[in-house]
Amino acid sequence: MPQDFNLPFVLSVAGAFLTSSVVAYVYVWPAVREMPRYEALRLLAAFHAFRFLGMNFLVSGFVSSELSSDFAYQVGWGDLIAAVLALVSMAALSWRWPIAVPIVWIFNIWGTMDLLNAYYMGVTRIGNPGLFGAGVYIPALYVPLLLVNHGLAFRILWRKRALEQPA
Questions:
Q1: Inter-CA distances, 121 with 1, 53, 73, 155, 156, Å
Q2: Do 48 and 93 touch, CB atoms closer than 8 A?
Q3: SS3 36
Q4: What tens digit of pLDDT does each residue of 90-114 get?
Q5: Can you tell me whether residue 118 is helix, strand or coil?
Q6: Which of 84, 86, 77 is nearest to 105 (CA)?
Q7: Range with lowest mean pLDDT among 5-14, 62-71, 81-90, 154-163
Q8: Which class for 167: exposed (0-12), middle (13-18), buried (19 or more C-beta within 10 A)?
Q9: Where are the alpha helices (DSSP H) in 24-129?
Q10: What is the DSSP annotation of 132-148?
């Protein structure tokens, strides 16, 4: 564990995961599971269309000049790719493309792996959340919401094919 381990930040992230999970379980999942598969997936993908916010890690002054440029590039570009994949998923689902569900699988896998990679890099290479500057809210609040959202999307993707289209 890096020397700059920050317990308050870790507790903040854990609290965001717990709260996101509880809200998803109590409010979001009951509504989303009743929706037709394409509609539920489109709604869940819409939340990820805002992941272009990760590009702010590349903005001078938004983060500390001491933040690893390798970390900033991986986080920024990984999030931008996830945002584009989310938008493509939304289009594919809206227009009922035959490859819509595989596109959503690609988006969901990419998006999840990108977020887990960012956390891994943050813990093993950064350690000090103060280096995130104004972007500290992204890993402390937004990423837990996104990961829980990906979990909901995986549950919808694993549903039986009979639930794919509305009757």
A1: 12, 18, 12, 27, 29
A2: no
A3: coil
A4: 999 999 999 999 999 999 999 999 9
A5: helix
A6: 86
A7: 154-163
A8: exposed
A9: 29-32, 37-48, 69-94, 100-121
A10: GGGGGHIIIIIHHHHHH
d(CA 112, CA 147): 6
Six-digit token pair at 33?
Answer: 């599971």
d(CA 149, CA 157): 12
Task: Provide the sign of the torsion angle of the four alpha carbons 154, 156, 157, 160, taken in this order.
Answer: positive
How high does pLDDT run on average in the chain?
Answer: 92
The per-residue pLDDT for 127 is 81
3-state class of 117 per DSSP? helix
Distance between start and end Cα atoms, the chain: 52
Cβ proximity of 64 and 131 under 8 Å = yes
Output the six-digit token pair for 3: 């020397």
Phi, psi of 71 (to 5 degrees): -60, -50
Percent of the chain having pLDDT more than 70?
92
Instruction: Tell me which residue of 142, 151, 1, 17 sits closest to 75, measured CA to CA.
Output: 142
Q: What are phi and psi of 137, to 5 degrees?
A: -65, -25
CB count in 10 Å sphere of residue 70: 10
Q: How far, in Å, CA of 45 to CA of 108, rounded?
A: 8
* pTM, to two decimals: 0.90
